[in-house]
Backbone:
């Protein structure tokens, strides 16, 4: 057995689920870092728990007695082949979980041939990410509206020049939210490096060593638009000033004109919005409630997925996130209409727990669990998951929604 294979076999024995990674991350990371990545909106993370329990309440009925062929997880998304329909959702400041996170997420995704959505607010720029993950890179933008979207449109052109395959516009952050766990852990808004945060960071030698290796995160893709040598605080101030609100339909049309490749809207939670997006030429929708980080009252995205899939009726690619912790969850999302599922927090848990080898271990876990789930259900390929009988108590019905 190769060193690589035995390392990952060993990890699969010690940390067989995402919650094992979460427990270890909680022990090893500075408190503010764990609270930043793990916490949601509202007092008790109810939105996060709703995502999890809504997924848990989707049951899939198996069919037996077929010829046993090992299932394949291979998936084609926007015409590109991936080893599995699982990917890394865009994450701002993932280096908080483990400094250098973007580099490790990009390398693992490239090696495992699964999509990596680089978040706008990342510690490596889009050009660097394209070198690390040339075959699997997608890029996410928030609304940078000043001067007629000069920065956002320039980033769009840079992403195209760098070879990014898919552009993702996040539409579900019309307001800034307060996340109580983050606030209570000492993260201030506007951000400030306080003595409390320094002491907290020093309590985690492995995290601090990675910070020394990679330096303070700088939101690298935005650097050309800032004054040279901007400090960390100036960088966050720049983002506060430039970024805000959610893309309007007119603004989305502007990006549709400039970006010639597949365009995805992330955060769609209503079939009428899905229809409007498709009518204006958007290629994909990411059904998402931002992992429960916006407001607690949003529906679990799995509960809205079937209504959106019904409206879309095959006219666009449907991506799913919010609550994915396992390959079983990926199978549930695909059974209910998604073409692929993405994860945010659980990738960060993998980094917080295991550092640079975390993301590869987690992609392997998701893929193997998806394969096992398909095998149990009697599916030999991903598209057969669509035909599995299911029971879905929390479902929002299309006919009862407006528009
Ligand atoms: C720490 C953190 C930062 C995030 N930053 C972004 C971001 O910059 N842009 C974005 O579109 N979504 C962002 N998200 C949301 C994720 O893309 C994704 O929708 C969400 O994490 C999925 O839910 P899950 O965490 O339950 O997997 C972030 C999520 C987390 C946990």
Residues:
């Amino acid at each position: 057995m190769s060193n690589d294979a035995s390392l990952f076999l060993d990890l699969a024995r010690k940390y067989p689920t995402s919650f094992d990674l979460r427990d270890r991350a909680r022990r090893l990371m500075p408190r503010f870092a764990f609270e930043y990545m793990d916490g949601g909106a509202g007092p008790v993370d109810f939105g996060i728990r709703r995502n999890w329990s809504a997924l848990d309440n989707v049951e899939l009925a198996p069919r037996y007695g077929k010829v046993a062929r090992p299932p394949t997880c291979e998936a084609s998304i926007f015409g590109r082949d991936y080893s599995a329909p699982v990917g890394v959702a865009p994450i701002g400041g993932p280096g908080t979980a483990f400094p250098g996170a973007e580099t490790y997420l990009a390398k693992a995704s490239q090696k495992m041939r699964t999509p990596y959505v680089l978040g706008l607010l990342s510690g490596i720029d889009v050009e660097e990410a394209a070198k690390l993950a040339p075959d699997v890179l997608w890029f996410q933008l928030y609304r940078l509206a000043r001067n007629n979207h000069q920065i956002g449109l320039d980033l769009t052109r840079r992403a195209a020049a760098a070879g990014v395959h898919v552009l993702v516009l996040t539409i579900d952050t019309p307001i800034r939210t307060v996340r109580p766990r983050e606030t209570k852990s000492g993260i201030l808004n506007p951000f400030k490096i306080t003595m409390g945060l320094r002491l907290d960071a020093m309590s985690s030698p492995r995290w601090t060593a990675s910070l020394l290796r990679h330096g303070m995160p700088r939101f690298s893709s935005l650097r050309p638009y800032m004054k040279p040598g901007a400090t960390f605080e100036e960088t966050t101030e720049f983002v506060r000033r430039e970024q805000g609100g959610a893309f309007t339909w007119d603004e989305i049309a502007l990006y549709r004109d400039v970006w010639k490749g597949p365009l995805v809207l992330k955060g769609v939670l209503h079939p009428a919005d899905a229809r409007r997006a498709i009518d204006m030429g958007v290629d994909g929708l990411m059904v998402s409630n931002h992992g429960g980080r916006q407001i607690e009252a949003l529906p679990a995205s799995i509960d809205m997925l079937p209504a959106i899939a019904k409206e879309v009726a095959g006219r666009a690619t449907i991506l799913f996130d919010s609550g994915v912790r396992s390959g079983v969850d990926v199978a549930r999302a695909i059974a209910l209409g998604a073409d692929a599922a993405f994860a945010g927090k659980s990738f960060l848990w993998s980094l917080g727990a295991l550092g640079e080898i975390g993301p590869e271990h987690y992609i392997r876990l998701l893929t193997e669990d998806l394969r096992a789930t398909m095998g149990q259900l009697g599916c030999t390929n991903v598209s057969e998951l669509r035909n599995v009988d299911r029971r879905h108590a929390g479902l929002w019905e299309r006919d009862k929604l407006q528009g």
Remarks:
- The chain has one domain: 18-400.
- The chain is about 45% helix and 10% strand.
- The mean pLDDT is 95.
